[in-house]
Amino acid sequence: MYKRNNVNDNVKPEIKTTMSMNNDNVDKSKVVDMIALRLIEKWGVDKANYWAPMCNIAWKLPEHLIWDHYDAAQKGKNPMGLFMWLCKRSGA
Q: What is the pTM of this model?
């Protein structure tokens, strides 16, 4: 057997998935609500119909990927449909 020097097997690094979650005091559900609200405002759609899908997207995808999909969708013929398709393809 060889000796593994300088390896900490018992340390689990904490990984932040979104840029908005850099503050440890912020709850993930509040961050999700903020992202979903910003998406609804940017798209200019009805909050009652799109709140659940936007929260689902904000919960499952990292924030940088959401905004990359938003920018990419602006170039399509049906931007909202393309955005939803890109997010579903990414795992939301």
A: 0.69
DSSP string, 15-33: ---SGGGGSTTS-HHHHHH
Query: In three state form, how does the secondary structure of 36-76 look?
Result: HHHHHHHHCCCHHHHHHHHHHHHHHCCHHHHHHHHHHHCCC
DSSP letter, residue 82: H
| Amino acid code (one letter) for 85 | W
**What pLDDT score was predicted for residue 76?**
87
Mean pLDDT (whole number) for 65-86: 93
Q: CA-to-CA distance for 70 and 90, rounded, in angstroms?
A: 13
